[in-house]
């Protein structure tokens, strides 16, 4: 990934989406050749020279002060995720090649977290690593996302599943929205740590094999989606909509525990209740799978599906 080009695309998109009227800039007629704000307008609003802002937009964020970054974030109406991404990019530019981070360790689910997931038997729950590696799921979580938990084999990476597995496009009712969310989350990770070889390999693989991913990755949208809804077409209980909440662990910040619920009294709640009944037979617990020497946390058994 080209760092300078990433910075340029990000800042260009930020100023392109903001109209002069929204920014409080007086327009004195004449045709504007660029969408959104001009560079000189951004510079004036942020309190820096046009040359200085132009240098930043061309990818040189090295040495830019925190006050200037905050002013730029306010000027371009960045939300929290976008502002954090800007700071991450500036930090990466300042560190440059001088800082060599240790090779990132694969995300692992702590034993106590596995026990917690297992006790949440009435709520579909899945544990994910930052790049979409599926680390574990309780019985109902495995049943809700059967494609991710093959009967015989390792759980799938959710990010690869979304873009490289045709089943995902039918499983997720609004596949495009959900896939966009994953791309924006990867962008945030890339801003924090561009030295992660697993991230580089994943992005390269997806960009090579998925036109949608390649197009959206170039767009440089960043966002955080820690809560929301997903509409799915389940192969057993049919279509349902579930609300998700993301929990983080102090002992393992690179692990996300995601829970799924349906609105009480809704048809989706009925479908989820039907799924609970379907998974009521004896199944291995998350804790057993997590501690098993033959499978480990990365290979929980999936629910048996009808043939």
Automatic annotation (TrEMBL):
InterPro entries named in the record: Cro/C1-type_HTH, Lambda_DNA-bd_dom_sf, MLTR_LBD
Region annotation Disordered: where it falls in the sequence: 282-307
Start and end residues of each HTH cro/C1-type domain: 36-83
Xref: SMART domains: HTH_XRE
A Pfam match: MLTR_LBD
Domain of life (superkingdom): Bacteria
PANTHER family, A to Z: BLL4672 PROTEIN (PTHR35010:SF2), BLL4672 PROTEIN-RELATED (PTHR35010)
Protein name: Helix-turn-helix transcriptional regulator
Organism (species): Streptomyces phaeochromogenes
């Amino acid at each position: 990934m080209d760092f300078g080009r990433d910075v340029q695309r990000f800042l260009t998109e930020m100023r392109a989406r903001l109209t002069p009227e929204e920014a409080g800039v007086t327009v004195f007629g004449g045709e504007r050749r660029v969408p959104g704000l001009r560079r000189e307008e951004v510079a004036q609003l942020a309190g820096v020279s046009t040359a200085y802002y132009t240098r930043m937009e061309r990818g040189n964020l090295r040495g830019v002060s925190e006050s200037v970054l905050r002013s730029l974030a306010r000027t371009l109406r960045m939300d929290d995720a976008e502002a954090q991404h800007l700071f991450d990019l500036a930090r990466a530019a300042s560190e440059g090649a001088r800082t060599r981070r240790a090779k990132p360790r694969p995300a692992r689910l702590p034993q106590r977290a596995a026990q917690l997931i297992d006790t949440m038997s009435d709520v579909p729950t899945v544990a994910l690593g930052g790049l979409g590696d599926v680390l574990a799921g309780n019985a109902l979580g495995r049943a809700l996302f059967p494609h991710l938990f093959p009967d015989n084999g390792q759980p799938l990476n959710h990010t690869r599943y979304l873009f490289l597995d045709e089943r995902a496009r039918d499983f997720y009712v609004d596949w495009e929205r959900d896939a966009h969310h994953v791309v924006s989350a990867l962008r945030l990770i890339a801003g924090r740590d561009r030295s992660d070889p697993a991230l580089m390999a994943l992005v390269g693989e997806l960009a090579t094999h998925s036109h949608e991913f390649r197009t959206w990755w170039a767009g440089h949208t960043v966002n955080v989606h820690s809560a929301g809804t997903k509409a799915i077409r389940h192969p057993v209980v049919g279509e349902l909509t579930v609300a998700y909440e993301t929990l983080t662990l102090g002992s393992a910040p690179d692990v996300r525990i995601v829970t799924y619920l349906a609105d009480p009294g809704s048809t989706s709640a009925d479908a989820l209740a039907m799924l609970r009944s379907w998974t009521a037979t004896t199944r291995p617990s998350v804790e057993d799978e997590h501690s098993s020497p033959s499978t480990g946390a990365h290979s929980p058994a999936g629910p048996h599906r009808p043939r």
